[in-house]
Amino acid sequence: MRLRPIPAVLGAALVWALLLASPETAAASFTVRSQVDATRIGVDDPVQLTISLEGSDAPDSVAVPALTNLAVAGGPYQSTQVSIVNGRMTRTISWTYVLRAQAVGAAEIGVVTAGAESAPAIRIQVVAGSVRPQQRPSDPFGRDPFGADPFAGFPGRRRQRAEPKVLIEASPSRRDVRVGEPVLLTYFLYTQVAVSDLNFTEAPQFTGFWTEELDRPQTPPSGEAATVGGESFRRFPILRKLLFPTRAGDLEIPAATFRIGLPAQGFFDDGQAVERSTKPVTVTVRPLPDVDGFSGAVGQFETRATLDKDVVPLGEAALLRFRIQGTGNLKWIDRPPTIDLPGAKLYPPQVKTDLEVTPRGLRGSRTWEFVVVPETSGTLEVPPVAVASFDPEAGRVVTAETDRLSLRVEGGTVAAGQVASAPAAIGDGGALPLRADLDASFAAVPAFGGRTVALLAALALLGHAGLWGAGLVRGAFRRVGGHTTPVRSVRAALRDIERAGRAGMAKEQAAALLDKGLHEAFGDIDSSDQSERGRAVRALLSEVHFVRYAPQLGDYSETLGDLAARAAEAVKRWA
């Protein structure tokens, strides 16, 4: 009978995969065997067929082969066994069937196929009567209604097992650490017998620790010789965890209980399951030094700051990258650095993380990318950024500092809070102009001669005379909340916003079109306007500017669609 796997409790992982299964990427093979306990039987005798798949890459099932002059009388009975040869583990899955002949003559068990592997056919001779040894007679007192046990002579008949010698140990890499310093916890299996399954009966709770799982080994563990209490064992690492203590004091790694499955020892053996527990382990955790500017980073780290360009025209964006890399508790470094950059708009950063779990801690990097939009010409100075961390090897807090960076901004001065950009014609494939560009284009009207000025003055007098008809054109304006906007401007703004929300437009073009539409509808929104309308429009413009100057880190179509919908709603409500 098969030893059924015991389900893990509270989501505990099946760690036996570390011992039996190699990764999908590893090259593995298996063999197929088909055998019987006799090739000459009587028509009244059973015959036992065993199909075995040996190897880590073997499938979990196999089809019954074609049978000639034979029929299945019982089974299949499945068992899993692990063998240790020269320090290497191999797995064998077996299926056992009881067959009976249907008539005297030739019989055959066909080719057994599993994947690309196969075992040859087996021929059996069937004679009259029975050729197996006679079993004991039935009980004369009628206590055994079925007579003799038909399977009494089979090998592997159930017998009393000796207590298996199997142990589990929890071993930390160190027992005296600082807060945030990693501890590698390894669970070891010590065994003198084959093991088929291994599960937590209940997943341990590591109170006071933040935990990380280490990747499975690329090859199944081979084990090593070990001695416990004067006896020889084979020791296998079955699970590794990285523990980061989150507070000072004596923290306990609790006892963990495993249920260990032992394979069947014969055809009629159901296998066995035993439980083994680790001993609790205490780790002494010391506090970190109290130093100004130190926020809890533990490990060895390097920092670097870079700009993607040295010179930008006024109004265009530059990308400032701040990177910290090394090995330690990198996940705890989750806040971007504080950067003071007068004369420029600094947008919230994008964060990129590239980490891997190693026995020494988390190794990799975290990068914050800031979009910088200068608001004045000249030279912008990016000051050095300092990061303090506790170096366990040095036993003290060390500070890493980035270099000072300079960004030269070329072009005229722009008032704080506005964004300038080189004008470009809408639809020509370049960036669309912002509101400041549109105003500048109107300011560049050529001067008129004196005769033209006189003509214009006369026309102005006629215009004053027509003020009495102003009421006739009031319908051409819309007034909401004290703000008056020409209906034509509102319609043009909505058209621009609708175009910006369509897919297929570059993000710079779409964002500039949204900016133009909002300025057409609302004009310049002063920061002193703290009304709901003023705050909402300023927030929209800020998001539009961010999208326009943000680096191309992905698809912005969904974000632009949302901005266009919100801008259209604001125009309809307040313009």
Give a brief description.
The chain contains seven helices and 33 strands. It has 575 residues and is α+β, with helices and mostly antiparallel strands.
Low-confidence stretches: 1-28, 137-158, 413-450, 464-482
Radius of gyration: 40 Å
Distance between the termini: 80 Å
Largest sheet: 7 strands, mixed
Helix content: 10-25%
Count of strand segments: 33
Helical stretch count? 7
Question: How would you sum up this structure, described in words?
Answer:
Helices cover 17% and strands 39% of the residues. It has helices at 17-20, 435-443, 450-465, 487-500, 507-522, 532-549, 557-574, and strands spanning 31-36, 40-42, 46-54, 67-68, 70-85, 88-101, 105-109, 112-114, 117-119, 122-127, 166-172, 176-178, 183-191, 197-200, 209-213, 224-228, 231-245, 249-253, 257-262, 272-277, 281-286, 294-307, 311-313, 318-328, 344-346, 350-358, 361-374, 378-382, 386-391, 396-401, 405-410, 477-480, 483-486. The protein is built from 7 helices and 33 strands. Strands 22, 24, 25, 26, 27, 29 and 30 form a 7-stranded mixed β-sheet that branches. Strands 11, 13, 15, 16 and 17 form a 5-stranded antiparallel β-sheet that branches. β29 and β30 form a beta hairpin. The model is unreliable at 1-28, 137-158, 413-450 and 464-482 (pLDDT under 50). The protein starts with 16 loop residues before the first helix and ends with a helix. The protein is an alpha+beta fold.
